[in-house]
Amino acid sequence: MYLYGKLIRDLTLQIFNQLSPGQTFRARTLTQDISLKVILEAVYGLENNGRAQRLRELMTEIADSFSSPLTSSLLFFPWLQKNWGSWSPWGQFFA
Fold first, then answer.
1. How many separate domains does the chain show?
2. What angle do helix axes 27-38 and 5-16 make, rounded to 10 degrees?
C-alpha cells in the first residue's frame, strides 16, 4: 500500500478539488469514486479512457445495488444470497 500512497493522494485531491467551498456532498459517493479510481489505476492499470469509464460505471452499478442496509445484509447471510430476479441485488448482478 505504501507504494500506492501518492496515487491515492493524487486521486483523492483530484476528486475533492472538483467540489466548491460550502458545497454539500455525500461521503459515500466520494469515497466510492476514490476507491474505484484507485482500483482501476493501481490494480488494473487503466487510466481515464473509455474502457476505464465503462468498467467504473459497471462497478458503480454493482456497489449501488448494495447501498441500503437491507440489500447489504444479503451479502452476509448465505441463505439470503438468492437470485430473486429484479427484486434482489443478486438478480440484478446476474442479469
1. 1
2. 140
